[in-house]
Write a structure and sequence with these properties.
The complex is a heterodimer of chains A (182) and B (162). Helices cover 82% and strands 0% of the residues of chain A. Chain A is mainly alpha-helical. The mean pLDDT of chain B is 89. Chain B contains eight helices and no strands. With 162 residues, chain B is mainly alpha-helical. The chains are: A mainly alpha (182), B mainly alpha (162). The interface between A and B is large, with 79 and 76 residues.
Chain lengths: 182, 162
């Protein structure tokens, strides 16, 4: 995660939306005290809910980030890496942190180090839908049935999408993607 | 606090302990990263929670149910999937949001479609994705993910209903 960049962006602009909606809520409170109070009640309940479960989620994200040697393992993800390569690609995505667009530069590094395109797509898929800290958070928010069936389906989807993408792209197109980064 | 939360705390604190025992510097680094990620997420989270507060208070449950409720049918799927595909809401914000909508009339399948498209489809980030993988791969991946999300919604709905 490039936290440095993110932190720089955290100027007053990040809080602009919050200021605006905070002021509107105060106006609402004066005009319609009953509705205003209900809004604050919803906000308060959700902040409490978040504070209860979010510290361990973020600690887990930080631990993964520090302890997973991404650079070292990507070397073993080439065309002939087979099941093991697929497994590593999933693990790299699932143990990552950050939004999907943060995965693209990492995918680029992986491509440079010889990771196969199929494994790249699996990595991207796992990153977007299979992050472990997020799953734990999803279980807390939406219940185990919802979260686990959603996760299992995404697992299937990651493979299906990588498989079809691999089929859709002809060899020339694949070469173009890979050559760009060589 | 329910049992799963307690278990989760115990697991993470044990991992933190092991990490600290093995390498203090790395552990401090991990905690700093955790704190920074949290701070970055705070403003959008609070903003969306407020927006949801307005939504829940001013839009009657019946209306929410009409558009994205259990019986909203294909229209509900379409609305949830389009919102999920276009918006850039972090998961940490999206899950409590889906939870709140569920408590206020939204349907399970529709929320699963929303969560799934939110995670897998990125209309706004497509140009960035294309700069890495080219447009053909980007459009194919996003379309596949979009349609697959409907399957996810249906299966999750079935699993929760059982």
């Amino acid at each position: 995660m490039d936290d440095g960049e993110d932190l720089k962006k955290l100027s007053w602009k990040s809080f602009r939306g919050l200021y605006i909606i905070g002021i509107i809520s105060i106006l609402v409170y004066f005009w319609l005290p009953r509705e205003g109070l209900r809004i604050y009640r919803v906000v308060f309940d959700n902040i409490l809910f978040m504070l209860g479960i979010i510290p361990p989620v973020f600690i887990l994200v930080g631990l993964f980030d520090v302890w997973i040697p991404r650079e070292k393992v990507t070397r073993h993800l080439g065309d002939r890496s087979g099941l093991k390569g697929t497994g590593i690609s999933i693990a790299l995505g699932a143990l990552a942190a950050g939004p999907l667009y943060a995965a693209f530069p990492i995918a680029e590094v992986m491509l440079r180090k010889g990771t196969s395109l199929r494994n790249i797509f699996i990595f991207i898929g796992a990153w977007s839908t299979m992050k472990i800290p997020m799953l734990l958070f999803e279980i807390q928010s939406l219940g185990p049935r919802f979260a686990i069936s959603r996760y299992a389906m995404s697992f299937l989807g990651v493979f299906l999408i990588a498989f079809f993408l691999d089929k859709f792209l002809v060899d020339d197109e694949k070469k173009n993607i890979i050559e760009k980064f060589q | 606090m329910d049992l799963s939360t307690v278990i989760f705390y115990v697991i993470v604190l044990s991992l933190l302990g092991i990490s600290f025992f093995k390498d203090r510097k790395k552990t401090v680094e991990a905690l700093l990263k955790a704190w920074k990620s949290f701070i970055v997420l705070l403003p959008p989270f609070l903003t969306i929670i407020f927006l949801l507060g307005f939504l829940v208070v001013f839009i009657p449950e019946k209306t929410i149910a009409l558009y994205i409720g259990e019986k909203s049918g294909f229209l509900g799927f379409l609305i949830s999937s389009i919102v999920g595909a276009i918006t850039l809401i972090p998961g940490f914000v999206a899950f409590p949001m889906a939870k709140m909508l569920l408590e206020n009339g939204a349907g399970i399948a529709q929320m699963a479609v929303f969560v799934s498209t939110l995670m897998m489809v990125g209309v706004v980030t497509a140009p960035l994705e294309a700069s890495f993988f080219g447009w053909k791969a980007t459009i194919s991946r996003n379309l596949l993910a979009y349609f697959f999300s409907f399957v996810v919604g249906y299966v999750v709905w079935m699993m929760v209903r059982i």
